[in-house]
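2024-03-11 09:14:02 INFO worker-7 job=invfold-0412 stage=load source=structure_tokens
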């Protein structure tokens, strides 16, 4: 069975700790891994450094690397396995595309000085996240306390209601029997 070549758009999330040590080294590692598995890399460029939608493995931010590739599905699967086992990539996505857009092809694999890419420190992100979560956590805690108080009040009322019902029944029952 032969596996035909296809065009792929790919996105790689790079660990910022690795990128701080050198963006070009991280990018070149991704490129060499892709090529080692038979993928032809047409475009491999910085897409940006961003906060993640949700933490992944304790990471709150990542450097995104956009690629346009050509190769077989087997090559993609083999490269994906290695990308997840070694190196700076902790997430990747490959999407099969009909063709590579001309504006992307013109981007190629641009050179970039490592000093031109500023990666925020993880500690700053964690502190900012804690500050954002602080009031919400306090609200959640007070909400939980209110719920607990409500439950306690409900228990007291529940205990009081049967007693009152017994008194009412006894009074009513006595009156009914006397008539």
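2024-03-11 09:14:09 INFO worker-7 stage=emit residues=179
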């Amino acid at each position: 069975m032969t596996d035909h070549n296809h065009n792929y758009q790919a996105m790689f999330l790079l660990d910022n700790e690795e990128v701080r040590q050198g963006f070009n080294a991280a990018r070149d590692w991704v490129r060499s891994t892709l090529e080692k598995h038979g993928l032809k890399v047409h475009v491999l460029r910085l897409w940006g450094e961003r906060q993640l939608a949700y933490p992944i493995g304790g990471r709150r931010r990542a450097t995104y690397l956009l690629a346009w590739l050509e190769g077989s599905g087997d090559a993609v699967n083999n490269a994906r396995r290695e990308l997840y086992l070694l190196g700076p990539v902790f997430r990747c996505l490959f999407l099969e595309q009909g063709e590579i857009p001309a504006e992307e092809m013109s981007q190629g694999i641009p050179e970039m000085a490592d000093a031109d890419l500023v990666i925020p420190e993880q500690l700053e992100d964690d502190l900012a996240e804690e500050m954002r979560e602080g009031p919400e956590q306090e609200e959640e805690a007070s909400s939980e306390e209110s719920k607990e108080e409500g439950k306690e009040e409900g228990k007291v009322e529940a205990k009081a209601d049967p007693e009152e019902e017994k008194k009412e029944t006894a009074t009513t029952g006595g009156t009914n029997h006397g008539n």
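2024-03-11 09:14:09 INFO worker-7 stage=report msg="Strands lie at 5-14, 40-56, 59-72, 89-97."
2024-03-11 09:14:10 INFO worker-7 job finished
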